[in-house]
Design goal:
By secondary structure, the protein is mainly beta. Among the domains are: 1-61, no CATH class; 328-412, Immunoglobulin-like (Sandwich). It contains 4 helices and 13 strands.
Length: 488
């Protein structure tokens, strides 16, 4: 049945008119799924003055008297549980928009499109880009304001485990979240690999993967804490606790090859660099336990520090290291000459393989004042042995032998005695305070100009579980004091 023009008047105060004279009017159902059918021309509800030739249907109200909903669509829940759609927008135009909303107001809290759901598992707004190729967007948001927000999402409930933003991708090469440009701000705790972070940033991973990998391709350089870095962490409080740390490294493995913190540098830089503001009282590095150094160790001074033997509860005892311009080893002991005044002293079996340029010190231990007893070396070291003789029989002799290392590593890595400072460090001091100079005169390796030479291949490779540095130490070591035979 056709809807007659006279019947349209009963719809007042709404005015429904055709935009083209003589065009087809609203008609009744033309098929089982149609409630109203209209084919050509424009349709206006509320006003005919807002004419636009590209608009097929206008619903207009100036909202001057209060809250107005210019268009409302409702689809209830069918008894057969079929999915319903209140508004369906569709376009086959590649550059078209299936649904578009505007809010031109520059004040207030309006919305171009407002979507809402009351269902526990509902979606206030759901967007899909079904194409498996191309750079299509399920949702695209743009805020042109200098202080605008492209996407703002909030979960208003103050309880439960609700989620403000959830990103998910089914592609192994896709991104659940992708951020470029600007900065990213997270106010609460952040978890990567864990849904319950207990600190500002908690990163967990599987047993076979790196928990975190960082890189920085910058070629700039800085000094102190100003240089580029793959990973930077800092404690900004000037009164942080004694166990606070810019970076904590933990490895809870109980094996012999784990590392708490590892550092690697591919060229001639530093694998790990430590700096302390108070170089007199602070520690650039502090180790509780054994320390192994496979290369040369350079230092301003050195000592042992132990509990004082006479007052271990209240004092420390320091002794400085013995220094030498050579890579020197020292061996010593006591020997007793036989009835003919001879004694043969046996050195460790590796002695001659490790040392050269032997030097001897001999002292007779004799409390008698009557006669002086002389001692000499009668046969120098050969076959890891040497022989001494005293001018009187059965004498106690204190001996000391030194040797210069000539093993393969020492021959390749001789320690220089005096070298020129780097050009940028001339006029600076390793220990400026000792010369009455300010700390601004300190030698700084942070601004050192590195050469472009290439380190040996065995230094450039990444540490592997089979590398010596990661192997367990030997359970026993050879004795430092050589065995002595001869005499009685």
């Amino acid at each position: 049945m056709k809807i007659r023009p006279a019947q349209l008047a009963s719809l007042s105060p709404l005015l429904i008119a055709c935009g083209i004279a003589g065009a087809q009017q609203w008609t009744g159902p033309t098929g089982p799924q149609n409630r109203l059918d209209y084919v050509t021309g424009n349709v206006y509800v509320g006003s005919t003055g807002f004419f636009n030739s590209v608009v097929r249907s206008d619903v207009v109200d100036d909202a001057s008297t209060g809250r107005i909903i210019t268009f409302h669509a409702f689809a209830g829940t069918p008894s057969n549980a079929e999915r319903t759609t209140a508004i369906w927008g569709e376009t086959n135009n590649p550059a078209g928009r299936a649904l578009q909303g505007f809010n031109f107001s520059t004040t207030g809290s309006g919305a171009g499109i407002w979507a809402e759901t009351a269902a526990d598992a509902g979606n206030g707004l759901r967007c899909r880009a079904t194409s498996t190729t191309g750079a299509n967007f399920a949702g695209y948001f743009d805020a042109a304001s200098t202080a605008g927000t492209g996407v703002y999402a909030t979960a208003t409930s103050s309880t439960g485990s609700n989620i403000g933003v959830w990103g998910n991708t089914q592609s192994s090469g896709g991104y659940a979240g992708y951020f470029t440009g600007g900065r990213n701000y997270f106010e609460g705790n952040v978890g990567i690999g864990t849904a319950n972070p207990s600190n500002r940033l908690v990163v967990t991973g599987s047993a076979s993967d790196s928990v975190q990998s960082n890189s920085n391709a910058s070629t700039n350089f800085g000094f102190n804490t100003g240089g580029p870095s793959g990973l930077s962490a800092s404690m900004t409080s000037a009164s942080s606790g004694i166990w606070s740390a810019g970076v904590w490294g933990f490895n809870n493995g109980t094996g012999t090859s784990g590392i708490g913190v590892a550092g690697y540098q591919a060229g001639q830089g530093f694998g790990i660099y430590g700096h302390v503001g108070d170089s007199v009282n602070g520690y650039a590095g502090y180790f509780e336990g054994r320390v192994n150094v496979t290369g040369n160790l350079s230092k301003g001074a050195g000592s042992f520090k132990i509990d004082h033997p006479l007052d271990p509860e209240n004092k420390y005892l320091y002794h400085s290291f013995v220094e030498s311009p050579d890579m020197m080893n020292i061996y010593n002991g006591m020997a007793y000459t036989d009835e003919n005044g001879y004694a043969t002293i046996t050195m460790p079996d590796y002695f001659e393989a490790l040392n050269r340029d032997f030097r001897y010190q001999l002292t007779v231990i004799d409390e008698a004042d009557a006669n002086w007893v002389l001692v000499k070396v009668v046969r120098e070291i050969s076959g890891n042995e040497f022989t001494i003789r005293t001018s009187a029989p059965s004498q106690k002799v204190s001996w000391q032998v030194t040797g210069i290392r000539h093993d393969a590593y020492a021959n390749q890595n001789r320690i220089p005695n005096a070298v020129d400072k780097e050009p940028q460090n001339r006029g600076h001091y390793v220990h400026p305070a000792a010369f009455g100079q300010p700390m601004s005169k300190v030698v700084s390796y942070q601004i050192e100009s590195k050469s472009t030479g290439t380190a040996p291949a065995n230094q450039l490779k990444q540490a592997q579980p089979s590398d010596p540095v990661r192997q367990a130490p030997k359970p026993t070591e050879p004795p430092l004091v050589p065995a002595v035979k001869g005499g009685h």
